[in-house]
Amino acid sequence: MCGTEKLSAKPTLNKCSLSSDNVTKEDNLINLDHGDPTVYESFWGKMGEKCTLVIKGNDLMSYMSDTRRLCWFLEPELEGAITRFHRVAGNAAVEDRYVVIGTGSTQLYQAVLYALTAPGSGAGPVPVVSAAPYYSQYQAETDLLCSGLYKWGGDAYAYDKDGPYIEVVTSPNNPDGNIREAVVNRSGTGEGKVLYDLAYYWPQYTPITRPADYDIMYFTFSKSTGHAGSRIGWALVKDEEVARKMTKFIELSSIGVSKDSQIRAAKIMGAICDSYQDLKSGNSENFFEFAHQLMAKRWKRLREVVAEVSEVFSLPKYPKEYCLFHGEFTESYPAYAWLKSNESIEDCEKFLREHCKIAGRGGRRFGVDPSYVRVTMLSREEAFEQFLQRLLSVKDIKKRALIV
Amino acid sequence: MCGTEKLSAKPTLNKCSLSSDNVTKEDNLINLDHGDPTVYESFWGKMGEKCTLVIKGNDLMSYMSDTRRLCWFLEPELEGAITRFHRVAGNAAVEDRYVVIGTGSTQLYQAVLYALTAPGSGAGPVPVVSAAPYYSQYQAETDLLCSGLYKWGGDAYAYDKDGPYIEVVTSPNNPDGNIREAVVNRSGTGEGKVLYDLAYYWPQYTPITRPADYDIMYFTFSKSTGHAGSRIGWALVKDEEVARKMTKFIELSSIGVSKDSQIRAAKIMGAICDSYQDLKSGNSENFFEFAHQLMAKRWKRLREVVAEVSEVFSLPKYPKEYCLFHGEFTESYPAYAWLKSNESIEDCEKFLREHCKIAGRGGRRFGVDPSYVRVTMLSREEAFEQFLQRLLSVKDIKKRALIV
Fold first, then answer.
1. B397 pLDDT more than 90
2. Is B380 on the interface with A (CB under 8 A)?
3. CATH-assigned architecture of domain A59-276
4. CA distance B340 to chain A (A)
């Protein structure tokens, strides 16, 4: 049978009891397992009226937004804001594309798989592959319903079968922050379809070297501005038929996407765009500058700490590239720290949990060996400070000779 | 292969170009195919401040609501409002149940199917049946991904196979407004699971004869208050394991449900409950009274019109029952008119479309013969008036001997 049995054994988001600062009350564990983007709350708290949404009792009551459009449940206001947002960030080509909205990019991922495989060929489910380390939820999301249309096919590097397949390219990659392209070398045969998860291709995380220009790419409100609770994602899709089938999937899965959140996303994106067009506003009011500086500061501090415990942990290095958005060479400051432990530690997740009281997500969940662990860089300030302190405590552990 | 090919041939919501009053500009067709509950807009437009939601830029940013709870993405404020709302309406037992939230009841339907069938038994997909006429989308939603866990099994009246099955009971029924119970007579064998779609079990549509008290039942914001655009549904679930698996499904499908809409639903439900606790407020401010009177008025007018064209159309009759909410015997005023044409008209949907310029949804979509058609009673006032006028025009058609 498909992957549901395995699934229930995996850790879930609601297994532990979190207070608002990510620290569990029972065992003092700091939970940095998930990528909850609360890091940006302080910025939005200062924005006042221009980011405050007011919805009256009779607003947005209909299922429909604009039934003349292919994606009939997409609010025109949000479509406009998305286009403008990408033009300001310079991170995606928006011309001649359909916008399809989803309940987070998670729903869009499934909508794309459906659109690329339905109606079924009859030749059995199409394998879905992604280069390891790949996003830990892809397998579970793909195999959730044991679909006859598609199934998880594992690491794209190891994929060498004939026939149709789908490759998911996450760039910058979750968990390791690297810029990626497709790796299955079957272009030209017409059998492979590629989709691009660009959740982290924003100027605070990585140099914007060009507007992404793929046939199917999607983004999310959660990681661009930090509004994860609104569950808004959007796809930019070249092919009309693919966009139509994605819309059909979302119609049958949830009859569209929350209009309240769509309008909120439009307002927040609009405020960011306004700030870049208002020359009088200082840098402090520009979201991407704020977020970029904040991520740079966190990464600088993390690298300092990891340097002090370099016998135990290491971090990836990222090349400097010319960022079109910032107009200078910049580094990557990924949303996650992809920590690798030295050879003496077999299971880095377990080590962090037991010795540092830090809950991260181990390498096996991402299709690689357990010497890796993913730790979010997007927590609130207090949780991030505790993360650094607890990581540093490894020095004392070493002194106490707990590590051989 | 599963039902995807058939699907794409079916009419979709975005096939025609609607203006805000449901009338297409191209062919003057009035679209009453879907159940968009815009009928209640006028009520909510008068509610002012007490139903106006204000969300600040830094509100509701996290994925999490309360990680100590089973359904960790459910806002405690909404859970409280749902409990209170059912107590005011008297339509469901809320004690000792888990509340699981979904992106509309559409997502919850799929979450229940997953929860009742995963991990798969290995014996092949479990049939899902419902008594005809059944909700037109169940088949497409069930077969969307050609799941190996479950598949559409058709009319429950005709179901006589051995082994596990799931029966969906919609009560009051969509399309015909009847109160229903399970019809597959296999209780006691432990092989059948029953889920109750109670979207229309509210005092404006049907007498509330008792609080519903089933193991798995779900409701939706769309049909209770008319806020379809918010995409909020909720299930009341007795069994912890079922609730946990439903939560897992929604985690993997969309990482939760829009928090903006959750808070909006809590506010609207709260305002309704407040109005019933505030003795000073007149009946006009009480939502269920307003909605009940409005539906009664529409049904009275529709029955008068149908009486005038009774040689062509007929409507179901509903028994009067004592309604615990209204404290008197009341009739049913369903959300849809389930029109039946006389023997001379083979296809009622086609007839309505061609002769009356009314787009309804034909009987075949609900698993019955095409002499039936479902027409929404929840449109805006102008569209409803046009519906009546156009239905009445059948008299002239008869005079012109277009009907033999």
1. no
2. no
3. 3-Layer(aba) Sandwich (3.40)
4. 27
